[in-house]
Write a structure and sequence with these properties.
single chain, alpha/beta, six-stranded parallel β-sheet, two-stranded antiparallel sheet, 8 strands, 10% strand, globular, binds 5,6-dihydroxy-NADP, binds zinc ion
């Protein structure tokens, strides 16, 4: 039966070739007067995108300051640096140019500037909730995290090694500017990690025991099939514009909550388990998800068997006649095969990490603290379950 739901996806999407040229006009319309540009290492500069954005803002007489050097698994110290710049320069609008790490940093700065009397990290510790947030816009250069339309924000406290999420509609970007051409310069590993992340945002919401709606399931299944087909195209031909477009749009739809309508919003334990791997070992998020999912899936599938069977049939194309368990297991194997075919890991060894028993216990404990009362929907997990899942993924 379908659960009640509120679907709130207010981000205006400006999609396609040349979309970035609209930046200045759009920000003017949204009332921006002094913008903080937030970006990562070199990719936005190298592609010429950064210069185009500066030009577009100048055309509209919008002034700006800049914060560069955001790294993957983005760090709290850069958030604080951005808040300091924002206070000094009277920033009233955040513009992220990059991927999830950059957008999440911009969101965190936006929270910090809106309520400067509080430490922004408290949000990620879940000791308070935000009441305000400065407006954020994003110019996306990698299809993956979905932060360009999501309510999510994930920051790593580099001092404690904690990678923590804070979800709030307040931070959903006002606009997302997406030109798939800018994703062509991505290293293959980032493209493929992005595809896994997009799939996982859909699968997290699909594998639940909490209600369902046929239209939501059908959208999720089509999304997953589309991402897999186009990930394979991009693995052979990274310059394929149409495949880039499919993946980029899928990335937003996968995490703007569309595929959570009518179900209970999802399981999300693969994400929670992976965030600890990111916090401890600084692994690429999508690759980390690929490495932990098979172990999670084998641990929980008997508690969520009808969904795993449906997934095997409708997404992975399993035609095998057999018991439900056999069909579900064949579906999990098919996901592993797909990951390998695009160069993604299926366990921690292939990911390049080998946590000790002590590190696994630490990750499991931290994971359950980060989860609070939301410890899964396909199967509710405890610390000892998390330990087993990590161990089986080594
Ligand atoms: O720093 P630059 O030079 O830009 O390089 C980046 C970075 O090294 C590179 N890159 C981005 N666009 C490029 C490019 N290189 C060449 N050409 C381009 N066009 O890609 C690397 C990865 O960037 P990052 O922003 O880290 O990628 P992604 O979008 O995968 O974001 C991952 C982060 O988002 C979080 C993850 O945990 C992780 O910290 N997530 C955020 C979510 C949210 N806010 O809703 C949900 C997700 O589940 C996820 O947890
Ligand atoms: Zn993710």
């Amino acid at each position: 039966m379908a659960n009640n739901f509120n679907y709130y996806s207010p981000t205006e999407v400006i999609f396609g070739k040349g979309a970035e040229q609209e930046t200045g006009k759009q920000l003017k319309r949204l009332g921006a007067s002094h913008v903080l540009l937030v970006y990562g290492g070199n990719s936005a500069r190298r592609s010429g995108l950064l210069d185009k954005i500066r030009y577009s803002l100048k055309q509209e007489d919008i002034s700006y300051s800049e914060l560069e050097g955001i790294v993957p698994n983005p760090r709290l110290d850069k958030v604080y640096e951005g808040i300091r710049i924002g206070k000094t320069d009277n920033i009233d609008f955040l513009l992220a140019i990059g991927g999830g790490s950059v957008i999440d940093t911009a969101k965190a700065i936006a929270y910090g500037l809106a309520e400067p009397e509080h430490d922004v990290w408290e949000l990620f510790q879940h000791v308070r909730t935000a009441t305000k947030c400065l407006p954020v816009a994003s110019i996306l250069t990698i299809a993956a995290a979905g932060s360009e339309t999501s309510k999510g924000c994930v920051i790593t406290n580099e001092k404690t090694g904690e990678k923590r999420a804070y979800d709030d509609n307040l931070a959903r970007p006002k606009i997302a500017i997406m030109n798939p051409e800018y994703t062509i310069s991505l290293p293959d590993y980032q493209t493929e990690s992005g595809c896994v992340d997009i799939m996982m945002h859909t699968m997290e919401r699909y594998f639940t025991n909490g209600g369902s709606l046929e239209i939501t399931d059908a959208i999720a299944e089509a999304l997953l099939r589309t991402v897999m087909a186009n990930a394979i195209i991009l693995h052979d031909n990274p310059n394929h514009y149409d495949a880039r477009s499919e993946i980029m749009w899928a990335g937003s739809l996968a995490h703007n909550d569309l595929t959570g309508c009518g179900n209970d919003g999802g399981d999300f334990m693969t994400h929670k388990l992976e965030h600890e791997m990111g916090g401890m070992f600084d692994v690429t998020h999508g690759a980390g998800l690929a490495a932990i999912w098979p172990s999670w899936a084998r641990y929980v599938y008997e508690d969520c068997l009808p969904r795993f069977v449906r997934f095997a049939r409708n997404v992975m194309g399993i035609t095998l006649e057999g018991t439900d368990k056999e069909i579900a297991e064949a579906g999990i194997c098919a996901v592993e095969e797909f990951y390998r075919s695009i160069g993604m890991p299926t366990n921690m060894r292939e990911l390049g990490i080998m946590p000790s028993d002590k590190q696994i216990l630490d990750m499991a404990n931290r994971c359950m603290i980060a989860c609070g009362s939301r410890t899964g929907s396909a199967k509710k997990l405890k610390v000892e379950d998390a330990v087993e899942i990590y161990k089986n993924a080594r």
